[in-house]
Amino acid sequence: MEQGSDPFDRDRDRHRVSVAPLQRGDGGLGGFLVAGRWPETTREWAQVLLLAVRLAAVPGMVPTTAVFHALDGVPRTDHPGAVGLIALAGPVIGAGAPAPGELADPMPAAVLLLHPPAESRPSLPEAAGSASGCVLLPGLPHLGLEHRAAWVEAEASGEMSQLVSRVGIDPASDPDTAVLAMLLAA
Which pLDDT does position 15 carry in this prediction? Predict the structure, then answer.
């Protein structure tokens, strides 16, 4: 600890990213309330994804592979410091699924894909029962801003079996990022 630093410094706490899960009426995961500030780095977004994947591993929270997207601003809330939502856009396929390009306007800072254990392929045999997910941080390659992504595999207990993050990805090179890029394509 730095000399003279206060472990209860509230100003420092305001600069943290705080994430709280939101439950739908049926008990499933409806998204996340983000407070303090939005994640800024691929690493911070990977940490948010890890929390989301751990929740997706809980039976009934994410019944089928689902898409979530970041939304600036929040509806009326009693939570001080709320800056936005990561909201459920719908299942990846079937009734209620977002259409190609539906998430393009306005372009979200991030889109997530969460796979419950029944729809995940574990990277290791001992990771059976894990959920997985991907976060795509869309860039503007024609302006020199590269696409970034992270992938996580974890159990509800919190045990993580895989965490990968990359900068400069081609969204078409991975099935998860390809799906998310399709939903963002205008």
Answer: 77
SS (HEC) of the chain: CCCCCCCCCHHHHHCCCEEEEEECCCCCEEEEEEECCCCCCHHHHHHHHHHHHHHHCCCCCCCCCEEEEEEECCCCCCCCCEEEEEEEEEECCCCCCCCCCCCCCCCCCCEEEEECHHHCCCCCHHHCCCEEEEEEECCEHHHCECCEEEEEEECCCCCEEEEEEEECCCHHHCHHHHHHHHHHCC
Q: What percent of the chain has pLDDT over 90?
A: 57
9 lies in some domain: no
pLDDT tens for 12-22 read 455 789 999 99
Instruction: Provide the domain count of the chain.
Output: 1
The pTM of this model reads: 0.86
Expressed as residue numbers, the domain containing 67 is 16-184
Residue 2 lies in a domain: no
The answer to whether residue 6 is domain-embedded is no
